[in-house]
Amino acid sequence: MASRFMTAVAEAYRAFGMRKDARPLDFSLVGWNEAVPGVVVLVLAQAAMLAGSFGDMLMDYLPFAFDLGFVTLVAFAVPIVVVIVAARLAGQPDKAPLLVMFVAILLLLVQVVSLVLSYFGMQTSMALVAVTAAFVGRAVRTVLGASITMAILAGVLVAVGTAAAGMLILLLPTGQMLANAA
Predict the structure, then answer these.
(1) In the chain, where does DSSP find H-type helix?
(2) pTM greater than 0.90
């Protein structure tokens, strides 16, 4: 099972740099049995990064950590839902698991880059949302063979949806407390 998962990860990773003359992607290597654990790995890695960022004060700020975790999960769900809907609209639902695995890898890489850059004091949230949107649009175009319009629409939906998910914090108790304190 682990070897099948790693084969699926490798195939989804190939979607990052697909060239016209490259070997076509083998969509049968990535099914829902591999895509769902890929998303679980992403969520667990994000939870570890979130818990690590609080360090010893995690228990003191547990409600805040839960609110941030919830907002992060919603933000992660946006590109995943967009690629599943795009695959269905393109009439190619069999390619959805590969796209979901692709998005899981992409989001994990974006989170790691964000974590590294944050140690240098750089705030890159919206820039990385734009990178995510661009890669999702490219994946929709490359994997599904979708039109440029559909790829751009997918990217815009990811950018707007992820930014809106970030604003969700203002509706949660922690966000309201922060807004009132400012």
Answers:
(1) 2-14, 32-54, 62-89, 96-118, 125-144, 148-167, 173-181
(2) no
